[in-house]
């Protein structure tokens, strides 16, 4: 039977999940388009994995509804599980087996028909063919990630759910991994990927930021940035840590973050912030200029605000 048609690869509304008395996912709604790379960001323990598991039918929400690849996440979880590629945070493989043998093992576990062809196809499409007979234990972190991706692509899913796929992988291998994701997306495969890396967030078509189980912002990088209406100034000078502390007590300053030899100062009251910056740069002979607020400034702002309000509730 062919898959039901749906405008979105993932379309979920108001998902909630409790573990005991802990409310870990709160009214999460999101849509992922076909061929879209959707980034899921948020601090540790904010509910990303739990949300992903509900979206692909592995975990039943306490309330809420939705579809994944057109199938109902509650009633049709078996169909979903067969059609998505899910890469968990801990992909396990046999170190003493080659790449090909590991993939063959996965294909056997899933009782795939045409196992040999499926393994060859995955090896080819992920550039692993030349290393197919290498022992997995001797591979670098980047190649192991590629093997993990090949394993979840064996059954040619139209949707990939990747839970922190590049944690602990070096920058070069991470870049290559992302090039691969963009190639897959260009072929119509949708990707929901959780990450803590800011450069990866910037490579997603759309993003969502979750904290304490609540989605705080969602959209393209520029929509997410604009949604918080922050003005940001960059200040150059010495003793930035001291200056940062001072600025935090001044009018219009909601946040200060040291980035190497520069200090980013952000606030939602643009006029008050400008007055403060003008005053401090005159008094201390500092150089300051207004810049576009970046994603990282916004994520730090969202995280801080949500930990203040949730901390107050605990
Ligand atoms: N099976 C479970 N039983 C009880 N609590 C759980 C269970 N799974 C997750 N939690 C709790 O739910 C909260 C959200 O966890 P989740 O793994 O979804 O967060 P996350 O954003 O994916 O975190 P990380 O970035 O560390 O992977 C955490 O407090 C976690 O301890």
UniProtKB/TrEMBL annotation:
Keywords: ATP-binding, Cell inner membrane, Cell membrane, Membrane, Nucleotide-binding. Signal peptide: none annotated. The keyword Membrane applies. One of its GO terms (molecular function) is ATP binding. Residues 10-237 form the ABC transporter domain. Pfam families: ABC_tran (PF00005). PANTHER family: ABC TRANSPORTER G FAMILY MEMBER 20 ISOFORM X1, ATP-BINDING CASSETTE, SUB-FAMILY H, MEMBER 1. This is ABC transporter ATP-binding protein. It comes from Trinickia fusca. The lineage of its organism: Bacteria, Pseudomonadati, Pseudomonadota, Betaproteobacteria, Burkholderiales.
């Amino acid at each position: 039977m062919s898959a039901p048609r749906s405008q979105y690869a993932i379309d979920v509304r108001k998902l909630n999940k409790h573990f005991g008395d802990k409310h870990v996912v709160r009214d999460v709604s999101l849509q992922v388009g076909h061929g879209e790379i959707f980034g899921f960001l948020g601090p540790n323990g904010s509910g990303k994995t739990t949300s992903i598991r509900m979206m692909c039918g592995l975990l039943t929400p306490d309330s809420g509804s939705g579809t994944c690849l057109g199938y109902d996440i509650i009633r049709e979880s078996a169909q979903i599980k067969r059609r998505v590629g899910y890469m968990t945070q801990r992909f396990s493989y046999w170190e003493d087996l080659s790449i090909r043998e590991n993939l063959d093992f996965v294909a056997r576990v899933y009782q795939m028909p045409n196992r040999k062809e499926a393994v060859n196809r995955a090896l080819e499409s992920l550039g692993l063919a030349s290393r197919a007979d290498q022992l997995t234990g001797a591979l670098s972190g980047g190649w192991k990630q590629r093997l993990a991706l090949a394993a979840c692509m064996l059954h040619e899913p139209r949707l990939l759910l990747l839970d922190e796929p590049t944690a602990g992988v070096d920058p070069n291998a991470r870049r290559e991994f992302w090039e691969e994701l963009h190639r897959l997306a260009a072929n119509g495969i949708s990707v929901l990927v959780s990450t803590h890396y800011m450069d990866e967030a910037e490579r997603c078509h759309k993003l969502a930021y979750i904290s304490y189980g609540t989605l705080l912002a969602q959209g393209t990088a520029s929509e997410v940035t604009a949604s918080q209406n922050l003005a940001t100034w960059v200040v150059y000078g010495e003793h930035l840590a001291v200056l940062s502390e001072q600025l935090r007590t001044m009018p219009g300053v909601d946040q200060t973050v040291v980035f190497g030899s520069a200090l980013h100062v952000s606030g939602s009251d643009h006029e008050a912030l400008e007055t403060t910056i003008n005053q401090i740069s005159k008094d201390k002979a500092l150089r300051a200029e207004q810049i576009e607020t970046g994603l990282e400034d916004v994520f730090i702002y969202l995280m801080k605000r949500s930990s203040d309000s949730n901390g107050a509730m605990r």
